[in-house]
DNA sequence: TATCCGTGGCA
DNA sequence: TTGCCAAGGAT
């Protein structure tokens, strides 16, 4: 028998996990035969990037580079082209570096230990715990934007999460997880799924929420978000847009391009040059001996 | 801690 | 049309 908790601000792991077992989307990286490498690639691609855009690219990468050593053997240019327009291409370079370290130092197997994962480039507090939990069934508080929102509502009764604070957020979620590894890992996946498909930012579907009866936000009458205003980053006209346009020229051509070809994508010469320099500094571009520009490692 | 780093869909 | 924002990380 199970007791039905009716205290606002608590989360019953069993209810959440049963809901997840019954409704989870069959995302390809959730298949039982997916390796730690497959999970790491998916989590890296999913950083700030919607599922629908990641899915086809992830399939291509798994077919082309099924092990870390396979990716490590590719050139940076190949990796950046295969990354396509997922955005934040530095993620691709860091994943490439991480793959090389995993191949060289970890027997070509993605580590399961959070601290070991954190030492790899491009793997931060979220990704390290996501890999430990989803790939290896470990108990690790997985905190992403969805989980933060679920906790803000269900536990704290707020309309949305305030500014992130890694240690506090980790402690909040850690307090919710059951002791056992497998159950805790399942609950972490369930919390994320709940935030993505039910407890959404704009129009949460509380009618379909498995824990609505315990939700502090429900009990408080679903008050509006009262925290500090969220900061929205501009994009049009920023260096991010210019860098994206410059890199897109290189992705779309075979070999090196001339400065004139790059000059064509943005009229502000000062900003253009600054962005070109920053791409070189970031290792996303290289300059050839004859002064042209190329993706790294392809000339 | 605040800011920077791409891209595209959607209300 | 445009602001919002989507499984963050590094500095």
Automatic annotation (TrEMBL):
EC annotation from Swiss-Prot or TrEMBL: 3.2.2.31
Keyword Phosphoprotein recorded: no
Entry-linked SMART domains: ENDO3c (SM00478)
InterPro entries: DNA_glycosylase (IPR011257), Endonuclease3_FeS-loop_motif (IPR003651), HhH-GPD_domain (IPR003265), HhH_base_excis_C (IPR023170), HhH_motif (IPR000445), MIG/MutY (IPR044298)
The entry's keywords: DNA damage, DNA repair, Glycosidase, Hydrolase, Iron, Iron-sulfur, Metal-binding
Enzyme class: hydrolase
Cofactors demanded by this protein: [4Fe-4S] cluster
Domain of life of the source: Bacteria
Catalytic activity from the UniProt record: Hydrolyzes free adenine bases from 7,8-dihydro-8-oxoguanine:adenine mismatched double-stranded DNA, leaving an apurinic site
Location of the HhH-GPD domain: 45-197
Family label: Belongs to the Nth/MutY family.
Record-given protein name: Adenine DNA glycosylase
């Amino acid at each position: 028998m199970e007791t039905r908790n009716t205290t606002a601000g608590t989360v019953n792991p069993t209810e959440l996990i049963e809901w997840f077992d019954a409704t989870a989307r069959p995302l390809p990286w959730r298949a039982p035969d997916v390796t730690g490498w497959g999970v790491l690639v998916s989590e890296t691609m999913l950083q700030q990037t919607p599922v629908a855009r990641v899915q086809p690219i992830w399939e291509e990468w798994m077919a082309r580079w099924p092990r870390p050593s396979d990716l490590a053997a590719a050139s940076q240019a190949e990796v950046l082209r295969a990354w396509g327009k997922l955005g934040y291409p530095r993620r691709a370079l860091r994943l490439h570096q991480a793959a090389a370290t995993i191949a060289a130092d970890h027997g070509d197997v993605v580590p399961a230990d959070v601290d070991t994962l954190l030492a790899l480039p491009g793997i931060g507090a979220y990704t390290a715990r996501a890999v430990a939990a989803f790939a290896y069934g470990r108990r690790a508080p997985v905190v992403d934007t969805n989980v933060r929102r679920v906790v803000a509502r269900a536990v704290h009764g707020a309309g949305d999460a305030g500014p992130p604070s890694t240690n506090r957020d980790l402690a909040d979620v850690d307090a919710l997880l059951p002791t056992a590894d497998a159950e805790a890992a399942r609950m972490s996946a369930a919390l994320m799924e709940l935030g993505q498909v039910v407890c959404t930012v704009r129009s949460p579907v509380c009618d379909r929420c498995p824990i609505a009866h315990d939700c502090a936000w429900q009990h408080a009458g679903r008050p509006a978000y009262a925290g500090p205003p969220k900061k929205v980053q501009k994009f049009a006209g920023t260096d991010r847009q210019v860098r994206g346009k410059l890199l897109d020229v290189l992705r779309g051509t075979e070999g090196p391009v001339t400065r004139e070809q790059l000059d064509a994508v943005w009229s502000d010469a000062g900003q253009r040059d600054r962005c070109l320099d920053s791409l070189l500094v970031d290792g996303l571009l290289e300059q050839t001996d004859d002064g042209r520009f190329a993706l790294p490692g392809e000339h």
